[in-house]
Give the backbone structure.
Amino acid sequence: MKGPRERIIYVPCILTGSGVQAPDYLATVDVDPQSPCYSQVIHRLPMPYINDELHHSGWNACSSCFGDATKKRNRLILPCFGSSRIYVVDTGTDERAPRLYKVIEPREVFQKCDLAYLHTSHCLGCGEVMINALGDPRGNGKGGFVVLDAETFEVKGRWDRPTQESPPGGDFWYQPRHNVMISTEWGVPKFFSTGFNPADLGTGIYGRHLNIWDWTTHCLHQSIDMGEDSIPVEIRFLHNPNSAHGMVCGALEGSIIHFFKTQNGCWAAEKVIQIPRKKVSGWFLPEMPAILGDLLISLDDRYLYVSNFTHGDVRQYDITNPYCPRLVGQVFLAGSITKGGVVTVLEDQELNCQPDPFVIQGRRVYGGPVMLQLSLDGCRLYVTNTLYTPWDKQFYPELVREGSVMIQIDVNTEQGGLCVNEDFLVDFGKEPLGPARAHEMRYPGGDCTSDIWV
């Protein structure tokens, strides 16, 4: 937390599904307020193929490798959600102008692992990189974990022991001091990859479990049922490696789930935050849930931040007591319930009126907040507003047409509180090849969503 202030951020930019026959690319954004290029894209690294759907990224080395002088955080791993291709990007030679280092073709992942729909990448302290997959190449909901050698980037095989009962994939986090990895479930890819269909609710298509793995044996030994269609996806342990506590988004039901280790050594989970649904007209359903896009925990383990893709707000909770979080900050950044839109809110347990459209530096913002990244000192929260191409098109067609943005929020780290920085805006609607959609963000020096202390 006492490290230097962030100066640049890497962010995947999505052109998949935009009508432009051009590849997704990795943008380098200048976030140094002393720089003449502040809040501008200063470099673009296009991938060699189209329709990859870049998603989440991770490093070849992180804090789990602390103490090993041979390790360098100089390769960014970019798994592709759409194509199941894996890109390895060299950020060490010139961090302001990354270059492509290696391409791992999907057929290698298919042949060695029988996995597809790659989602999240984490480095392991043993010198490997692990990427979770949401399903198999046929789109079935049988997830698993791809292992890469962190030096050669050869696909070594699967971390898990595949069975006919392999659970769907979502996200994952590990904690060796408790000999555990916990993974989550999004659902069956061949259904949700075409968009959100309300008829799929109640049919078992969407995920509902937290899956507890033995870190040593790689065996699944416990599953916690969080309820039908809860979609527990984004997961974070507290950063203190001795802690046996963490948080998960119940993405489709607007809940935050606290998981923890019990005295008998098993794991338990309970919902500690429930964002109320809003009764509406003009939407897919008569009640609009808070669809949660991302969550993160500050490095001091004091605050939880969560993005609300549908209602349009970013929330800050004090989780000093993880059993009883307190809402201490909230700011609205567009969403589906703004005034003048097609949705009319008929009943709202939280707001007295619908929020105003979000405009910054004269730019009307469409879409809802999704991906979050926090500065190391906890004072600046960066936000982008794209989820996944088929869902973006469905929920926010204006977002695909106009492109997304990156916003910076100033954080009160003493009492809590959020305020948009009006001087910062990255408008990806003005990109050279046309409007792009920005997703997950990474600092060259590591951050609170990619680093695991062991």
